[in-house]
Amino acid sequence: MSDLQALILGIVQGLTEFLPISSSGHLILVPWIGDFTFLRDHEVFNKTFDVALHLGTLAGVVAYFRAEVVQIIKGTIGLIVKRRAETADDRLALLIIIGTVPAVIAGGLGESFIDSHLGEPWQIAIFLLVFGLALAWADRRPQERDLDALTPRDAVKIGLAQILALAPGVSRSGITITAGRVLGLDRDTAARYSFLLLVPVTAGAVLYKGLKVAGDGLPPGVGAPLAIGIVASAVTGYFAISVLLRFVRTHSYDIFAAYRVVLALVVFGLIASGVKDATF
């Protein structure tokens, strides 16, 4: 694997993990379009590299939301000790836990099905198109509520929506932002809650998948690409969060919905013209 390919994929992961355009979809489509064959030919390392990229984005989101992460940790401890939410920290932790549980259960139960049946370019294009249009529709809802108005019932609904993001092309941030906007959250709050939900989900996935691949070993010469991928995803992830939160304070999510639709049409066009195969 070349350092340039690792850099490109690290940047792609960092940007698309937080922008509502699907990181898992892009990490399949970019090698598919660019004929990056190393990850396809080294399936075990492909999983290791995926863990490394997610470790980078986890570092980026924790760095950006470090104060909120401390709140969540304090609140979680408070919930364990007091068995109820009494403080703002407790309440934030409870909302994050509730929103996380559905995706964790579904991801654990459906991992083999997802790996075996989802992730082909034609499927990703469909999900990009459908959920891009859903984001555009939801973003026309009134902005009536902030994070203080989010209820446990809302967290359950957003958490259930997050299950859909297990399919490449849907976008974890995209579907949670869409659900938040349907519930009347303002654009900034929908994005912030989405990003905070990423912390426990990604941390758990990195730990779980990291333990699974820990004993598999690495192909020769991949140390530098791994390091480059981690750093690139962390730096660009931090940048993407900052830019998106500033952007949505004064703009809609339409540009991201339009991008998804255009990319889907490009993928369909490449397949229909015979330039690329429908599968990777």
Give the arrangement of secondary structure elements.
Elements (H helix, E strand, L loop, with lengths): L2 H16 L4 H12 L3 H4 L1 H22 L1 H17 L5 H30 L3 H18 L13 H11 L9 H11 L4 H27 L9 H26 L5 H19 L8
Characterise the protein shown here.
The chain is an all-alpha fold and 280 residues long. It contains 12 helices and no strands. α1 (3-18) runs parallel beside α11 (223-248) and α4 (43-64) packs across α10. The longest helix is centred in the middle third of the chain and has 30 residues, at 88-117. The mean pLDDT is 92.
What is the helix/strand order? HHHHHHHHHHHH
Low-confidence stretches: none
Tally the helices: what do you get?
12
Q: How would you characterize the largest beta sheet?
A: none
Radius of gyration: 18 Å
From the N-terminal CA to the C-terminal CA, the straight-line distance is: 18 Å
Shape: globular
Proportion in helices: over 70%
How many beta-strand runs? 0
Query: What is the SS-derived class?
Result: mainly alpha
Could you tell me the strand content as a percent range? under 5%
Mean pLDDT: 92
Features:
mainly alpha, globular, 280 residues
In short:
By secondary structure, the chain is an all-alpha fold. Helices cover 76% and strands 0% of the residues.
